[in-house]
Specification:
Layout: H1 3-16, E1 29-33, E2 36-39, E3 44-47, H2 50-53, H3 62-72, H4 85-97, E4 102-108, H5 111-126, E5 130-134, H6 143-147, E6 164-167, E7 178-179, E8 182-183, H7 185-199, E9 204-209, E10 212-213, E11 219-220, H8 225-236, E12 239-243, E13 267-270, E14 281-286, H9 287-295, H10 308-323, H11 326-347, E15 351-357, E16 360-368, E17 373-374, H12 376-389, E18 391-392, E19 394-396, E20 403-407, H13 415-432
Parallel strand pairs: 3-18, 5-6, 5-9, 9-12, 12-13
Antiparallel strand pairs: 1-2, 2-3, 4-14, 7-8, 10-11, 13-14, 15-16, 16-17, 16-20, 19-20
């Protein structure tokens, strides 16, 4: 396209788009393939964020393209009271791979939707209305999901849902509770729930958590924490909802991040990775909870519930992840990526911490390793240099979150692409200092 066309594009964007957070990247994306996106000049940009942390099979995976083309010509969208084979097949497949006795699924479109469905079910089943989450959480931008989101977006839009409580996420890099110089997350959790109990009216319904808080700065819950959290919920008659929008479907090295801890939630929510970049989400729960909810009149009737086309996509995603052992691949390549980041950390004082699991890693940029003060300005400069060099990186710059790069390449990324990304990141850091 000509420069005049580009000018028209940006003028139209300024005049006709609602700005929904942050800045738009200063380039026009024309196509995508595998681990790369391509701008209007044909420049290849290595995508180290899998789109919106979603495209676990890379962009335009041939099998996903095939199933979309096939499905759109046969079965796309139905009346919400009708069922199709892809929907029932995907529900059955999710029951087969989900941990424990999670065996009944509701298929939806977005992560916020699946979290809405989960919170609504928890309230109905328990009879409570109070929902607890982490102060660094992100669960969506709608209703109950937004009320359980504390990392951003709460100001200027009126009160959250009645009974919304938050506790600090356990953060080993910046520990709040220490005993003999060792981070004591158990004492922190006890203290947090003591405060919840003091504020609760006695109608606690659920705790909703991400096993790795992504927008919160890639905060990985320490081993043992999830089990302790589950016990806290059981003691109070609460349900535990785990939001695995970003951690599910192999990204952390297991099918689901909670499997590392041997913890089965009462409700599991999936999105992003389940559709490999296309709009598909799921809420998965036990037969006992679903039966109780149904008896009490559970209602979550939406236009795109149980749509066949995205269900067919989800089936193919799960098939590819299993057939190609992509969870194991995420573990192996994640170690390669982590080793490269640690090597950079050994050479650049501005890297304060490297954390995460599998192919969901975080790298925090600081002004000083001893004070651990975040350097948001340097993080922004590195981000800009990365893009100029042909590397798309996503940095958390929310207030109080520091400057944390969220690094999540597709599970199909190659060793060569991992090494290329590390090389471009090194150059970007050198140019930014």
């Amino acid at each position: 396209m000509s420069r005049n066309d580009d000018s028209r594009f940006w003028r139209d964007a300024r005049e006709h788009l609602v700005r929904y957070g942050g800045q738009f990247a200063p380039l026009i994306i024309e196509r995508a393939e595998g681990s790369f996106v391509f701008d209007a000049d044909g420049r290849a940009i290595l995508d180290f964020t899998s789109g919106q942390m979603s495209a676990v099979l890379g962009h335009c995976h041939p099998e996903i393209v095939e199933v979309v083309r096939e499905s759109i010509g046969r079965l796309d969208h139905l009346f919400s009271g009708m069922l199709s084979r892809p929907v029932v097949d995907l529900a059955r497949r999710l029951a087969e791979i989900a941990p424990g006795d999670l065996q009944r699924a509701l298929l939806l479109s977005t992560g916020a939707e699946s979290n809405e469905a989960a919170i609504r079910m928890a309230k109905l089943v328990t009879g409570g209305w109070e929902v607890v989450g982490f102060a660094q959480s992100w669960h969506g931008m709608t209703g109950a999901a937004a009320s359980a989101t504390y990392s951003a977006g709460r100001r200027g839009v009126g009160p959250a849902a009645v009974g919304s409580f938050a506790i600090p996420a356990p953060f080993a890099y910046r520990p709040r509770f220490e005993r003999n110089g060792v981070y004591d997350w158990a004492a922190e959790l006890d203290d947090a729930f003591d405060l919840v109990d003091r504020q609760s009216s006695g109608h606690l319904a659920a705790f909703i958590a991400e096993p790795i808080l992504s927008s919160g700065g890639i905060i990985d819950l320490p081993p043992g924490y999830l089990a302790a959290l589950k016990r806290k919920c059981e003691q109070r008659g609460m349900l535990l909802i785990l939001d695995e929008a970003q951690t599910g479907v192999g990204r952390t090295g297991d099918w689901f991040a909670c499997e590392r801890d041997g913890v089965v939630p009462d409700i599991l929510t999936l999105s992003k990775t389940l559709g490999a970049g296309l709009p598909l989400a799921a809420m998965v729960t036990t037969a006992a909870i679903e039966e109780r909810a149904h008896e009490r009149g559970y209602l979550f009737y939406t236009t795109h519930v149980s749509d066949p086309l995205p269900a067919a996509v989800g089936l193919r995603v799960l098939e590819v992840v299993q057939r190609e052992a992509l969870a194991e691949r995420a573990r192996v390549l994640g170690e390669r990526l982590r080793a490269g980041l640690m090597e950079l950390m050994g050479r650049f004082e501005c890297i304060g911490d490297v954390r995460g699991r599998g192919l969901l890693l975080g790298m925090e940029i600081v002004k000083d390793r001893h004070t651990k003060e975040p350097d948001e300005g340097l993080g922004a400069r590195i981000t800009g240099q990365c893009m100029q060099l042909g590397l798309s990186m996503n940095i958390v710059q929310l207030p109080g979150m520091g400057a944390v790069f969220r690094i999540a390449p597709p599970l199909t990324v190659s060793e060569r692409e991992i090494d290329l990304g590390l090389s471009l990141l090194e150059q970007a850091i050198q140019r930014s200092l």
